[in-house]
Model the fold of this input.
Amino acid sequence: MAKIIDGREISRNTRENIKKRTSEYVEKNGRAPGLAVVIVGEDPASQIYVRNKAKACEEVGFHSEVIRLPAEVTENELLSVIEKLKADGKIDGILVQLPLPRGLDPKVIIDAIPPEKDVDAFHVSNVGKIMLGEKCFHPCTPAGIMKMLEHEGISVDGKECVVVGRSNIVGKPMAMLLLHANGTVTICHSHTVNLKDITSRADILVAAVGKSKFITADMVKDGAVIIDVGMNRDENGKLSGDVDYENVEKKASAITPVPGGVGPMTITMLLENTLLAAENSSK
Ligand code: NDP
Done:
């Protein structure tokens, strides 16, 4: 039976620590760390994410602002909103909720956020620094996974790590963070041949595919650590991960459930990055 890695519990502990550091920050600086979230259009999933982010800010004592813009906003109008937030002394972190409506180039928009306020760590400068292993913000989902591994005392050093998925927000930065922690890392994607042979070698297997129950028990080594990033909803809205949890759990040494695994850590790491941005700006 695998150890269940409880993302909710780790997230609670981490947020308690953030709350404490926030009080100290307020005492020292006379203001709370501030996060601005910009949302464009009416995408229902994005609306939920943004609400959850604002609620999480409130819980730890941050100042937060949600800027809602219509789907028809022009690139220049959106850039001028970012320009204002850039100069706003109450705002330490700026996040533009993705995906953006068609017609807005996310690359142009994200790269307009100053790297020191880029708490999602999607700016080209932060992406480059991750590659180089320099100090910078880490993208929230991979950062949350590293925190979970650390919390569970699971060392990455020398381990065979396989990441299935190569997106810019999860797969690629995940692989880099595992590599910097001295894992031997393989990245798989939709063109990978003999996927099962590769995943079966993994001591630590990260699934970030976006396909329900994609990782089955026959793809997993006995005693592997399984990290399930997937958040897939069926036609009834029921959430499932990328891992066939019921069967894989019997072979794994540790596993993250969905829900209650990686998901809760993502917003927590956004809070952590925002606090870091505030602490950096007051140095
Ligand atoms: P993307 O769709 O951007 O990337 C999916 C990746 O999976 C791609 O690299 C794709 O390969 C690969 N893939 C697709 N099919 C296969 C296949 N048959 N074999 C091997 N690889 C395959 O998704 P994201 O990275 O954004 O998200 C992945 C999942 O994680 C989603 O379910 C998402 O909802 C969830 N997620 C959860 C978060 C959380 O907080 N828990 C945060 C972010 C995402 P290729 O590049 O070749 O197309």
